[in-house]
Amino acid sequence: MSEMDIFFHPKSIAIIGASDSVKFGYATTKYLLDSKFKTFPVNIKKQEIHGHKAYKSIKDIPEEIDLVIILVGNEFVLQTVKDCIKKGVKGIIIESAGFAETDVEKYIKLQEEIERIAKESKVRIIGPNCIGVTDFNNQFTTADMSFDQATIGKVAVIAQSGVLGNIFIDWATDNGIGFSKTITIGNKVDVDEVDLLKYLNQDPETQVITLYLEGTKRGKELFETFKNMEKPVIVLKNGKSDIGSKAVNSHTGSMAGNNKVYDAVIKQNPRIFRVNNFYEMFNVAHVFASQPFPTGKNVAIITGSGSLGALACDEIEEQGLTLAKLTENTISLIKSVIPNWVSIRGTIDLGPSIFETFIPTIEALFQDENVDCILYIFSVPRWPLQMMGSMATNWAKQQFDIIKKLTQKFNKPCVCVCFGSGWTFDFLRKAESSSNLEIKIPIMSRIKYALKAFKMMYEFGKIKKSG
Amino acid sequence: MSEMDIFFHPKSIAIIGASDSVKFGYATTKYLLDSKFKTFPVNIKKQEIHGHKAYKSIKDIPEEIDLVIILVGNEFVLQTVKDCIKKGVKGIIIESAGFAETDVEKYIKLQEEIERIAKESKVRIIGPNCIGVTDFNNQFTTADMSFDQATIGKVAVIAQSGVLGNIFIDWATDNGIGFSKTITIGNKVDVDEVDLLKYLNQDPETQVITLYLEGTKRGKELFETFKNMEKPVIVLKNGKSDIGSKAVNSHTGSMAGNNKVYDAVIKQNPRIFRVNNFYEMFNVAHVFASQPFPTGKNVAIITGSGSLGALACDEIEEQGLTLAKLTENTISLIKSVIPNWVSIRGTIDLGPSIFETFIPTIEALFQDENVDCILYIFSVPRWPLQMMGSMATNWAKQQFDIIKKLTQKFNKPCVCVCFGSGWTFDFLRKAESSSNLEIKIPIMSRIKYALKAFKMMYEFGKIKKSG
């Protein structure tokens, strides 16, 4: 058992600064008090919170406490931590902000003092200036989020920013991306990315790790940990520019460090991949978590639009991939089903014939030995789809069912990139998730992310094979 | 009056290949037959289409025809064009595909023959391989789209791709972006980007022009036209790479041309701006169409998240902008309303205090003489917003009302970048559009696009002022 387990499987919890007025921490408090997790609210001014007896101090709680969530104002945090240590708690999550990130001498000192006493005790601390953790499997959370609006999956998140604990989960859930655990680590007085990378590398619920970093205090250990990872890690690093680096300092009090050093270290480690933004990070992770690894760099493109196909070709070159050169047999197979006005030079641009020609075409592509990955660009306007009604719905369901079967049969990855309205995305996502097959086909809005994922997975797959 | 007017204000229309079965062109046919536009269906096999008498040939229609929409198979197009010219029509839109883009000798020749006879007659032709035009003001369309799912605005589109005639309109409408006219030009046997740039430069309904180009046959005239534009033109050029350039050829039969030449020409013209993808193109155009021009490069950032603020700082440097250095007065004003844990070094990171502190803070930023543009990063998780219910809704409405008033009063642009679920975007968009003030505040999903727009508008504003 790891020390980190206490943050995800606490037997008892206290919330210091628990409140029944709507503000930061309210959703967490209400959720935990009503949940299967044994939770004690602590509030110096209240007798009762959401119908549960409130305690004046953690010291008054008559039972052992595993984990404490601290929501009180910055000036009360140090004393609270001291009380927790006296009580013998195992883990503390300090969500309160107002420490080193303010650049105010008094609050920097406060943080240093917490750091010092954490080191002298056995307690492990996450934060301050964060929203803590979520475990999507056992439904434990400290992050003001709702499990009704989240999906279980194989992607884990370690992030030096609260937005990755709920706001990007909101976004990702809409996009069919599921998670195992998220941990936001804020100013990192104790638990940091090194502890958590090691922990998640062993976590059976996690297959891919995403890491958002503003800076590290343990560069050497971090780079050593990168070397020893077995799972893929998708890294986003902020603060590349001068002013960005200053902004990082005023966010979590981190020194951004040298951008080029990060780049060099990441390039040396074939299991660690650097991305450029949050959307890219999650989309790439989703493909890693859902698709088989390609054994080559040849991408076949099936598209409803020639211009989007051309754009994908630009991107294939940009990513160092290759446009698959189809065999004569595949070309004959496709030619036998398409009308004469369909262009199959390079990308397979089915245009409006897609409703009749998609299924035999994608079958032909999957079986082609020169094809390693398949990019499917969906571009049908909303209005005709709506006019087609259930005809369109049934077609879309059948389409995803076949893609899933082919993905499993040929062990080749396939990603669908959709263009159009929110309605169109919903239409496709419903069709995708209506299939009984367990495998998921990512549906995303950017060609770049799909191709980047193929490239990274190809690189990762090579290492995996070679042992 | 311009020759191009016939494509947007035809007095009578014939649809050749009109059909009442659901396929490409069905929506257009049904819409026009039921509309105020006098429309005659032509179908060799049918007596009646959607309750309207169908004609065997355009020659059989007893009235004059201004504009013809051709939907028939590629092999029937040449004869149809000849018939149209005999009939004396003024404009033709050939939507049928299967010409030069197939790289099949026979179909290349077919296109050349259409081009030749177009040149010898007075008729103007758009296409082939396109979906024609939409006029959002008078609600004329040939593009299989629905005006119930579109918004009138000041952005025009010229595009060598059908996806920009409806699919991206679907997307843009969801994103609050409105249009004046869209024209998809396909393989361009006659009407091309040069004709349309000149036309839209004079169009009172258009304020900003977006141009998606795969290649040009009239490089010299195009570059000359760029020089003479008075309105801003946002250009996306595909086919940068070798394989992308080949793909462009198989899409609209265009030669992609030298990417560096385009770059150089665009850089010489301060009213022409190059972008990297469709989303960027429309988001930037939306800011141009809705916001005042900034008179300087100093951007103030008000954010709910420090990490997103830091990301914006990286991007400010990337775009050659400056993070605004607030006056002492502004800092005091903001300090008087924020709690001690709010960090206002660099970006103004209000965190969860945003509900109490946003309005006085943004007022302070607008009045600051060192601030030229305002970026507002909205990052509140969905669940707390839903729990707050009407409290949150009312706050959001009030917030946009105040932003709009400040934008008008101080004549400074403001863009809101939102992170989170589709629900959150809807929540904000409803609040934005509920205000009675006519000005719109763009709500987008990428910091990069907002800052790129500020930079381009600053450059454009300088030219405008100087001449």
Write up this protein.
Two copies of one chain form a homodimer. The first copy, chain A, has about 475 residues and is α/β, with parallel strands linked by helices. Chain A has three domains: about 5-125, NAD(P)-binding Rossmann-like Domain (Rossmann fold, 3-Layer(aba) Sandwich); about 135-290, Rossmann fold (3-Layer(aba) Sandwich); about 290-465, Rossmann fold (3-Layer(aba) Sandwich), CATH 3.40.50.261. Helices cover about 40% and strands about 20% of the residues of chain A. The first copy, chain A, has 16 helices and 20 strands. A seven-stranded mixed sheet of chain A has the order 9-8-11-10-12-13-14. The relative contact order of chain A is 0.08. The interface between A and B is large, with 91 and 91 residues.
DSSP strand tally of chain A: 20
Poorly predicted runs of chain A:
none
In round numbers, the mean pLDDT of chain A is 94
Q: CATH topology of the largest domain in chain A, anyone?
A: Rossmann fold
Protein traits:
6-stranded parallel sheet, 16 helices, Rossmann fold, 42% helix, homodimer, alpha/beta, 20 strands, 467 residues
Q: Brief description of this entry?
A:
The structure is a homodimer of 467-residue chains. Chain A is α/β, with parallel strands linked by helices. Chain A is 42% helix and 18% strand.
